[in-house]
């Protein structure tokens, strides 16, 4: 089944911090539950070092390095729920740490595709812009 541009039901995820391969949350949340993990870049975002984990915020000046992960089809809903819980995201809820949004990402091989990305929620974004520490180069693994 070909994914239509406006069909967000089964998009891959772009992960840029503790969910990347080799990082702590990948080990217990994603290992063995994906069909592929591909290095990619999110353009139009800056990466900030948060308390213990990173936050990406929309900003045309930057880019964030990460990985596109494709959950196994039979585990998609379970992975989606687990990721939302980890990121403390609930659709439309006040107080979310992150918002899950669709953004185009570009793989290192040049393919552009839509993916779910967790960006800092508005309150956290304001704090990060005022007091946060951007991660030079936008790569959590090389902070």
UniProtKB/TrEMBL annotation:
It comes from Actinacidiphila glaucinigra. Residues 13-141 form the Gamma-glutamylcyclotransferase AIG2-like domain. One of its GO terms (molecular function) is transferase activity. The keyword Zinc-finger does not apply. InterPro entries: AIG2-like_dom, GGCT-like, GGCT-like_sf. Signal peptide: none annotated. It holds the Pfam family GGACT. SUPFAM superfamilies: Gamma-glutamyl cyclotransferase-like. This is Uncharacterized conserved protein YtfP, gamma-glutamylcyclotransferase (GGCT)/AIG2-like family. The keyword Transferase applies. It comes from the Bacteria. Keywords: Transferase.
